[in-house]
Design a protein that fits this description.
It is built from nine helices and seven strands. With 245 residues, the protein is an alpha/beta fold. Helix 1 packs across helix 8 and helix 8 runs antiparallel to helix 9.
């Protein structure tokens, strides 16, 4: 069982691959989409949950998603067809860092996908080249809410604290026009959903050759969350505009 399979099973009960509840997702999309006829792009779209939600809410919207996972894109297309929004959705099976479009976008998303680009600022660099004048970026990434242990840093990377994270974004030429800091409830709900869905699948499929690996992965992840990073990790979403176009 590879990481993609584990992630798909783990997100069965929490399709947004970030510690955000449905109200937070809706508010962020509402802040990023002002007219309703925008063209939006999700770099590292996974199963396309952000795009599908935007398309079902805004009937004149057009959306594109990029991801390396063929199975995730197939799931996104199936969901879009079920909801009747597939004709306004274009999906690209390629590395989001290498993606080139023939047109610009009014909103570029990159929530929980900064690892694909090598970090927060590198993700913003990638988003900038796709952004239309006056456009917005919706980005989400982790930060240290408290001093992390060396084990937490080794596990999740060399994140900054919240003020420093925002300062770095501003220094890179962006102005935050809205933001959301995930609550403790959102953070815990996400982790319980992730580990619970994966463990439930393993228990429901005891004869599957991958069952023991899935259960072990859920157990390890839960232990790392509770013992290593739960008290230190935070998650920030920002809606950004370029300070000067």
């Amino acid at each position: 069982m590879n990481r993609e399979q584990i992630s798909r099973l783990a997100h069965a009960d929490h399709p947004i691959a970030a510690p955000l509840d449905d109200d937070s997702v809706r508010r962020l999309l509402d802040r990023g989409i002002s007219r309703g006829d925008e063209r939006i792009l999700d770099l590292g779209c996974g199963g396309g949950e952000w795009l599908v939600r935007a398309l079902t809410t805004h009937l004149r919207l057009r959306a594109e998603g990029v991801d390396v996972s063929e199975s995730s894109l197939a799931h996104a297309l199936e969901t879009a067809r079920t909801l009747g929004v597939h004709e306004r959705l274009v999906l690209h099976h390629e590395d989001a860092a290498d993606f080139a479009a023939s047109h610009a976008f009014d909103l570029v998303l990159g929530v929980g996908a900064t690892h694909a680009f090598g970090g927060l600022l590198a993700t913003l660099t990638a988003a900038r080249k796709h952004l239309a004048p006056g456009g917005r970026v919706l980005i989400g990434d982790g930060f240290w809410a408290r001093e992390p242990s060396s084990e937490a840093v080794e596990m999740l990377g060399n994140l900054a604290d919240l003020p420093t994270t925002v300062d770095r974004v501003i220094a890179d030429g962006w102005t935050p026009v809205y933001g959301h800091i995930s609550t403790r409830r959102e953070l815990d709900d996400y982790e319980w959903a992730w580990t619970g869905a994966l463990a439930s699948w393993a228990l429901d499929h005891p004869n599957d050759p991958d069952s023991s690996q899935a259960l072990a992965a859920a157990t390890t992840h839960r232990d790392q969350w509770l013992r290593v990073y739960r008290d230190a990790f935070g998650f920030l979403c920002l809606i950004l505009r370029r300070t000067s176009d």
